[in-house]
Amino acid sequence: MTVVGQGTRSFFRLFDLLGPHHVKLLQTAKAKGDRLVVAVNNDFSVRALKGPDRPIRYLDARTAMLMALECVDAVFVFDGDVEPVIRNLAPVIYVKAEPRRKVRVSGKQCTERVVTLPRVRGESTTETIERIRNGRRY
Known about the structure:
With 138 residues, this protein is an alpha/beta fold. The protein has helices at 20-30, 43-50, 59-68, 82-89, 125-133, and strands at residues 9-13, 36-41, 74-78, 93-97, 113-117. The chain has a single domain (9-133), classed as Rossmann fold (3-Layer(aba) Sandwich), CATH 3.40.50. It has a five-stranded parallel β-sheet with strand order 3-2-1-4-5, sandwiched between helices. The radius of gyration is 15 Å and the shape is globular. It starts with 8 loop residues before the first strand and ends in a 5-residue tail after the last helix.
């Protein structure tokens, strides 16, 4: 899939359980330009990154939820190597959540601008799973 046009942007996010914080990030990403393409890690790459118990929701469910959101124009599935995806999509704006630790931003040379959005502390899928395992709901 190639996405072109003034203000086109992509948002790349690894997630299992779509939560309110994801929706807010996606809405904010959409506001940065004219189209929002969400690139989603396939199940194999989620498992490789997060462990054998992940993903919680399989790819079909995750992509269906994303496509149901008004702010999402297209969903693109990738295998974990994000740089070729960014090169192929060629977004004008690459929107991503701030990293948990200092890392090199993959693919930034393939776009005009990288926009980093703040994470919502305590709302990641990993943190949600830990709360459930520890018997806490909130």
